[in-house]
TrEMBL record:
Its main location: cytoplasm. Pathway: Porphyrin-containing compound metabolism; protoheme biosynthesis; protoheme from protoporphyrin-IX: step 1/1. InterPro entries: Ferrochelatase, Ferrochelatase_AS, Ferrochelatase_C, Ferrochelatase_N. It catalyses: Fe-coproporphyrin III + 2 H(+) = coproporphyrin III + Fe(2+); heme b + 2 H(+) = protoporphyrin IX + Fe(2+). It is found in: Cytoplasm. Catalyzes the ferrous insertion into protoporphyrin IX. Gene3D superfamilies: 3.40.50.1400. Signal peptide: none annotated. Its EC number is 4.98.1.1. It holds the Pfam family Ferrochelatase. It is an enzyme of class 4 (lyase). This is Ferrochelatase. It comes from Ideonella lacteola. Keywords: Cytoplasm, Heme biosynthesis, Iron, Lyase, Metal-binding, Porphyrin biosynthesis.
Length: 363
């Protein structure tokens, strides 16, 4: 199907503005068939799996896509919400709220959610912006910490769409916000609210998504960004060094990954006498399979089985007011000049231009 036809260009028309809120992706349904489609797209991305195609293709199509979809579908089914996948549900809510938050700040924009893999795709969201006549687009990947496998891959998808488009909009791109003051404050407020409701544990474990260790040696800043986020959050919460740790989850394959591993850390803490642990995932803007199943379910089982007494998962920011305010402020800064109220000089210049056009029309 051809992409929607953009609105006809009109001289003097103000460029409308859009914000593309992009997250990683999710299957359409918690079924083996849907997981097979999703995993095929996800694991075919050269940014995600950097193994040469000649070696990776037989593994992906001969083993992984034959065996993994059923197991993954069962995991997704355990966290599926009535409205759909948790990641899709939360990202859609965030997009709707972000448009409202920005509007309250005098920034009238159209905000659309999109997924790097799955639906709604980045290409379909950009097509919709074109059909609306949006000529300026802020791409906001929902990844606080930059990684080639996430942030850069989002840029790849936008570039691929642009390569098929004749009239390319003006783009801006949010690189990262791992040390953003409002983001750190929102995380801290989320932790404090949880402690007020549930009490406080002896240890706060900050679990980030894992990446192969070679990504660090190749120059990816992800590991450093995670370390800084964790340190700033600990400082904001005024935690002593023995009251918090950082770890990395979601390992895959036999390569050496960033460590320490979250499951190993949970076992070590329980074996060392920690009775209660609180776990937060600061690298995820919204709850998803990796937080709800891997941490809240599997992580809890790991800790309790190793001798721990109480495990508490602290949800992601999701649609929390502090988190949405932080996201809105981040977007507003990057939208500077696009949706700000025009200055008196700019208004006078536009008025002069309109008068000149009117005189020319009469002549």
């Amino acid at each position: 199907m051809p992409p929607p036809t953009p609105l006809a260009y009109r001289h003097g028309q103000a460029a409308s503005v859009g914000v593309l809120l992009a997250n990683l992706g999710t299957p359409d349904e918690p079924t083996p068939a849907a997981l097979r489609r999703y995993l095929a797209e996800f694991l075919s991305d050269r940014r995600v799996v950097e193994i040469p195609r000649i070696l990776w293709w037989p593994i992906l199509h001969g083993i992984i896509l034959r065996t993994r979809p059923a197991a993954s579908a069962a995991k997704y089914a355990s966290v599926w919400m009535p409205e759909g996948s948790p990641l899709a549900v939360w990202t859609a809510r965030q997009a709707k709220l972000l448009q409202g938050y920005l509007g309250e700040r005098g920034c009238a924009v159209s905000v659309r959610p999109a997924m790097r893999y799955g639906n709604p795709s980045i290409a379909s969201a950009l097509d919709a912006f074109q059909a609306e006549g949006v000529r300026r687009i802020l791409v906001l990947p929902a990844y606080p910490q930059y990684s080639g496998a996430t942030t850069a891959s989002t840029f790849d998808a936008v570039s691929a769409w642009a390569g098929r488009t004749r009239w390319i909009p003006e783009f801006r791109f949010v690189h990262q916000y791992h040390d953003d003051v409002a983001y750190i404050a929102a995380l801290a407020a989320n932790v404090r609210a949880h402690w007020e409701r549930e009490g406080r544990g002896e240890m706060l474990l900050m679990s980030f998504h894992g990446m192969p260790e070679r990504t660090l040696t190749l120059g990816d800043p992800y590991h450093c960004h995670c370390q800084k986020t964790a340190r700033l959050l600990a400082e904001e919460l005024r935690l002593a060094p023995q009251q918090w740790r950082i770890s990395f989850q979601s390992r895959f394959g036999r390569a050496k990954w960033l460590g320490p591993a979250t499951d190993a850390s949970l076992k070590e803490l329980a074996a060392g006498g920690t009775r209660r642990v609180d776990v937060i995932c600061p690298g995820f803007a919204a709850d998803c399979l990796e937080t709800l199943e891997e941490i809240a379910q599997e992580g809890k089982e790991t800790f309790l089985h190793a001798g721990g007494q109480a495990f508490h998962y602290i949800p992601c920011l999701n649609a929390a007011p502090a988190g949405m305010a932080a996201l809105a402020e981040l977007a507003r800064r990057h939208l500077s000049g696009w949706c700000d109220a025009p200055s008196a000089g700019a208004r006078e210049l536009e008025a002069s231009r309109q008068r000149a056009m009117a005189l020319g029309a009469r002549d």
